[in-house]
Amino acid sequence: MDVSEGMTEHAARARAQVAEGARRLYERRLVVATAGNVSVRVPDSNLLAITPSGVPYGGMTASDVALVRLPDGVQVDGAWAPSSELPLHRAIYAGRSDVFAIVHTHSRYATMLGITGRPLKPVHYAYGLLGDPVRTAPYVRYGTAALAEATLAALGTNGAVLLQNHGAVTVGGNLEGAFERAEMLEWLAELQIGAEALGPPLVLSEAEMAEARAALSGYGPEKRPGMTRAWHAGSGSWCR
Predict the structure, then answer these.
(1) Quick one: which of 22, 41, 65, 153 has the most CB atoms within 10 Å?
(2) N-terminal to C-terminal alpha carbon distance within the chain
(3) Are strands 75-77 and 66-69 parallel, antiparallel or unpaired?
(4) Interval 138-179: pLDDT, tens
(5) Which range among 4-8, 174-178, 229-233 shows the weakest confidence by mean pLDDT?
């Protein structure tokens, strides 16, 4: 393990942000125990910072976070082994140059949709923040290259994907964007399941969603004035 690769300011800040993200996952009940994971692409490097395997998220610190080389998956720093879903994160970063952060959840309502094989429907215009449409990747065992490939294929150019009998993945140009999509996905799934308990929900048409997407094109943390995709040393946050 070449620790020197992980001793840059960008890498240190990325590890701190992943630790904060893990605590946020736990506090917002988007995961159960240590299920789910968070990663950030380290700017100006071939590294990613990712939550470790089997470490409680509620008290995670930056030193717990694994630092891994993107091309070969070799760990270069961190007290614990990286998440078992490392192949999934590496595949998405390799296939999507616009993605700088990934959030993988086992949130209740999004997972319910994946378990029942029911698609997420455009029952609210906020669906436009996630994809066109949000697809479901077929079931493949966790931690495998096959799951990574299936997830990337189903994700396409979208911001979210459901995983059959597993959970969900959201991506963003920064970690705040990926988290907002994770929370929006869970809210929309809960909204849809609740509405279906009352009766068939009204679903927005393709034309209505196209109009909503156009209106939403400048919305979100990745589009706010002054944001960049690089790590902003002063604010300690990812920006676009």
Answers:
(1) 65
(2) 31
(3) antiparallel
(4) 999 999 999 999 999 999 999 999 999 999 999 999 999 999
(5) 229-233
Higher pLDDT, 239 or 93: 93
Count of Cβ atoms closer than 10 Å to residue 211 Cβ = 14
CA distance 155 to 92: 9
Which residue ranges make up each domain of the chain? Answer: 3-238
Which candidate, 191, 188, 184, 173, places its Cα nearest to that of 227? 173
- State percent of the chain over pLDDT 90: 76
Rounded CA-CA distance 204/52 in Å is 40
Buried b (16+ CB within 10 A) or exposed e, 121-156: bbbbebbbbbbbebbbbeebebeeeebbbbbbebbe
Residues marked as catalytic: 85
- Whether residue 53 contacts residue 83, with contact meaning beta carbons closer than 8 Å, is answered with yes
Confidence category of residue 224, pLDDT binned at 50, 70, 90: low
Closest by alpha carbon to 132, among 160, 107, 92, 93? 160
Read off the pTM. Answer: 0.89
Q: Which residues pair with 103 in a beta bridge?
A: 38, 170
Q: How far apart are CA 45 and CA 42, in angstroms?
A: 6
List the structure tokens of 161: 């994907």
pLDDT computed for residue 228 by the predictor: 37
Contacts (Cβ under 8 Å, ≥6 apart) of 97: none
